[in-house]
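quick one, 372 residues, struct below
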Amino acid sequence: MIRQIHINNFRNHANLRITIPDDRRMVVLYGENGIGKTNVLEAISLFFTSNGLRKAKYEDLICRDTEQNHWSIRIEANAGTFFSGYIRDTNFGKRVYKINEKSIRNLEEFQKEHYILWMTYETDRLFMQAPSYRRDFIDMFCNVVNQVHAQNIKDYEKLTKERLKILKKYCERGITADISKWLDILEAKIADFGLQIATERSRMASTLEQYQIRSGEFPLFKSQMIGGVETEILKSDNSIEAYKIELCNRRQKDGFAGATTLGANRSDWLVTHEEKHIEASQCSAGEQKMLILAIFFAFILHNIKNDKRSLIILLDDVVTHLDTNHRNLLSRYIKTLISQSSNISVWLTGTDKEPFNELSMDALFIDMATKN
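---
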C-alpha cells in the first residue's frame, strides 16, 4: 500500500506531498478542473507502465511553472521506497529509477509486489472511439496477467514497421528473391508475435465474460475479440503457417496501402449488452459507463483470486454520467472489494465531495485546492 507520495516538478505540481494514514485504503482527491487531480494518478501509474495512463512523452511531464529540467516521483509503500524520475539533458533525456535509494534499471521490483489498474474520464467513450483504444484497454488487463504481453506488442509493431518500409520501397520496382527471403523471415516473426497477442487478448475477453458480476447490480455483457486473425487464422489447423501465407499474399496490397491489413493491429474488442442484445456502442452514456465498470470489476474479481500482489486502483472522474443510485452502487462495491482483500487500495478523483458521500467514513478526502 502507498503510505506517502512526493511529486516534484511534475505537470502542474512543483512540490506536492500526500501522506496516507495506515487505516485508510481509499483516497478521494477533489477540486475544480485543472487543479491537478489526474496528474497525481498519472504519477502513480508511471510505476507500472513506462509512459503512464496518458502515454505522454517524458519531456512533456516537466512542470512548466518552473525552470527545472527534471521531474520525480517518490512513493513510500509497505514494500519499501520507490523512485521514478526523468532528467533532461542538452541532447537527450534519461529515466531514473531507484528502490530504497539504490539505482536500478527499471521498476520490476515494484511490479513484483504491486500492479495498477485505471479508468479515466476518456474511458467513458471507449466504445465510441477507434478500435486502438479498446485494444489498449484490454491490453492493460493482459499486461497484468502476462508480463511479456507488452513486449510482444512492441516487438510486433517494430517488425510490422520494418516490413512496411521494405514493401513501400520494393513494391513498385519489384521484389527480388533476396528481398522475398528477407520478408519471409520478418513475416515468420510477425506471425509468431501476432498470434501470441491475439491469443492472449481472446483469452482475456473470455475471462472477463466468465468472471462478470451476476448479482443484477451491473449489466451483463458478452465479450469477444474480432478480426481476421481471430476469425480466420486462429481457427486454422496450422495457425502460424496460415498467418505467414496470408502475409505473403498481401505484400503488394500492404505495400501500396502503406498499412498492415491483417494482424493484431487490426483486431477489435466487441462488447455486447446481454439483456438488450445490442452492441455497447449503441447504449446510452450511462449504460456504457456501467458496462465498462462491470468489465473492470470482472477482471479484478478474477485477479484477486489468482494474483497475490497488492492492487492499486486509479479511478479518475468515474462518477460522470452516473446517477445518484449508480454512484452509490459504485461506492458500495469499492468498499466491498476493500473488505474482501487487504491488498487493495483505491484512489478516486472528482470535482466535488458530494458524489463520494458513501465513502465518507472510510476514505481520506483531500481538497486539492489546499495542496497548490
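The chain has two domains: 1-127+307-372, 130-282.
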